[in-house]
Amino acid sequence: MAKKRDRVAVYIDFDNIVISRYNQLHGDGQFTKDRVRNFIPNRNNSDPVIAARIREATVDVAAILDYASSFGTIVVSRAYADWSAPFNASYQKQLIGRAVDLTQLFPTAYSLKNGADIRLAVDVIEDSFRLKGLTHVIIVAGDSDYIPLAQRCKRLDRYVVGIGVSGATSTALAAACDEYADYDALPGVEILPVTLPVDYGTAATAGMTDAATTTTDAPAPFPQERSVDPDAAPAASADPPRNLQKTATATLRRALDLLAKNDLEWQHASAVKVQMKRIDPSFQERALGHGQFSDFLKSRQSFIEMDKTSPPLRLKLKS
Fold first, then answer.
1. Which residues are bridge partners to 13 per DSSP?
2. DSSP codes, 185-216
3. SS3 of residue 292 by DSSP
4. For bias kind Low complexity, which ranges apply (predicted)?
5. Helix (H, G, I), strand (E, B) or coil at 314
């Protein structure tokens, strides 16, 4: 009899998470004050300070999905927002690249409220009844409106995981979930200092923030793709492109970080490979010049330890 696989559904209240992240770093209500939703970078009249702030507050969707994949195979992934807004539209490449279904929600009132909470809740309940094998529901939001949804999912025998921005998530929502994680603590998310709001009246001429003064004449487009580990091990073979080697190294590190939550010091190599494939389905050790997965691991011993005393092979990150 085949082993039952854990099947995961991810639902992202996109406005909730990106606005919370921006306000977390730049001050309460700053997203609205800076008029970020309709901000278009690289225009002659675009404010370089705001452009720098947006880049700094970019949400790493890949880190969220990689964390979700540590619970099982992702079978549903949806993000809810008004994708016609320039700020949200800038994330489309990042989301589509990870096969996230973009659910369009047009504002229904002057307040720009798009009804994401209602649509998200309806989809979660519908999927819970329609997809009988669904085991995990991951809600990426911090709004207390999702408390009844989390409670209902638990009654339907689904394991509920919440992900929200620190300081912007209802404590009651976290308590209603089986497990909760701060976005800031996810593996791969850069820890950034919280800054004070900028006085734009003076910043335009002098006293700009460090983020603004370090921008170039042509700011990089945002959101930027998730960077690979700068401490990656050298390529084991001259044949595979170096970017493939660096990506594989970063994926291995992230897989070990994610598996560390099971409180085991050593991880089985087979479990590590499964997690790496969840993060990057295109991973193949043969494409990197290695005949076996164990050979790939041996080439990364600069930052991992391997226990070969008894089968199966086990490994862990060096302390």
1. 80
2. GSTTPPP----PPP-HHHHTTS---HHHHT--
3. coil
4. 230-244
5. strand
- 155 part of a folded domain: yes
CA 258 vs. chain centroid, Å, equals 13
What 3-state DSSP class applies to 239? Answer: coil
Q: Hey, is 67 helix, strand or coil? A: helix
Nearest C-alpha neighbor of 36 from the set 59, 60, 12: 59
pLDDT given at position 239: 53
Q: CATH number of the domain at 279, please.
A: 3.30.420.610
Hey, what's the torsion of the CAs at 38, 39, 45, 50, to 10 degrees? 150
**CA nearest 101: which of 72, 71, 127?**
127
> What is the bridge-based pairing of β-strands 314-317 and 304-307?
antiparallel
State yes or no: cis peptide before 281, omega within 30 of 0.
Answer: no
Residues 143 and 256 in one domain: no
- Rounded CA gap, 121 and 195, in Å? 34
Q: State which residues form the domain around 13.
A: 7-213
pLDDT in tens, 13-32: 999 999 999 999 999 999 99
* Interatomic CA distance for residues 204 and 220, integer angstroms: 20
CB 211 within 8 A of CB 52: yes
Spell out the residues 6+ positions from residue 314 whose beta carbon is closer than 8 angstroms to its own.
Answer: 266, 267, 268, 269, 306, 307
**Predicted TM-score (pTM) of this structure:** 0.75
pLDDT of amino acid 114? 59
How many structural domains compose the chain? 2
